[in-house]
Amino acid sequence: MPWVRALLHGQQVYARAKPDGTLLVQGNRVDVCYTPNTSRLYKARSTNLVREEPPTVLPDETCAPRPDSAARLKNAAVRAISKKPMQSTAIPKAPKDAIIAYADGACSGNPGPAGLGIVVIDATTKTEISEHLGQGTNNIAELTAIERVLDTVEDTARPLVIHTDSAYAIGVLSKGWKAKANIALIERVRERLVKRPGTTLVHVRGHAGIELNERADELAREAVRTQSSRSERVG
């Protein structure tokens, strides 16, 4: 099957398509590759893809591996495994009675229109927020999403676990990474976290099928797309 160019979170990719150039969607997912002549394919939500218009239909071999690439990738994988132990992608178990939150940010253009999405689960109550942030960067959106969770969860005595797929946010907020930008925002969130010792930041893999993380991503991108904000509480 052929391919077409598309944007995924602002980055150009090649998406699997039908002969007429429409995306080939299977279970709300589309095969994508980031560079031509690679054997590494990914699954992306169809709603996160923006197809080039008008589409240029590219041949099937666009994302086919070069003759020597399969062996090269296999050797690279063997070397990587031999150098470091495999890391678990399991999400750590949350403390009893913890409030669970997922926070994500999105940006079109980086900088460009930015938005955040959060999902907060407290027992049987779920709160979803999709918020347009105006012009900003992806990192600002990721940090502000975490701050918005702190705004939403008013009970500072309860354990709170915030999940984010932003390694940057985890690094500058909890691992002592030196910030070169967004310093005021980072310091503000750090100070708030210090005052909430029961709060834990957990890094999760993005676009790995983690339901609530995917939902937070959808809410963030909805805010960018509609340039509007909304909040909904159920339960």
Task: Explain what you see.
The chain is an alpha+beta fold and 235 residues long. Helices cover 28% and strands 30% of the residues. A 6-stranded mixed beta sheet has the order 10-9-6-7-8-11. Strands 4-3-2-1-5 form a 5-stranded antiparallel beta sheet, with no helix packed on it. The longest helix has 16 residues, at 211-226. The relative contact order is 0.15.
Calculate the mean pLDDT score and round it. Answer: 86
For the terminal residues, how far apart are their CA atoms?
45 Å
Strand order of the largest sheet: 10-9-6-7-8-11
Tally of helical segments:
5
Blueprint of the fold:
Layout: E1 3-8, E2 11-16, E3 29-33, E4 42-45, E5 49-51, H1 69-83, E6 99-107, E7 112-122, E8 125-136, H2 138-152, E9 160-164, H3 167-174, H4 183-194, E10 199-203, H5 211-226, E11 230-234
Parallel strand pairs: 6-9, 9-10
Antiparallel strand pairs: 1-2, 1-5, 2-3, 3-4, 6-7, 7-8, 8-11
Helix pairs in contact: 2-4
Quick structural overview:
By secondary structure, this protein is of the alpha+beta class.
Entry keywords:
five-stranded antiparallel sheet, alpha+beta, single chain, six-stranded mixed sheet, 235 residues
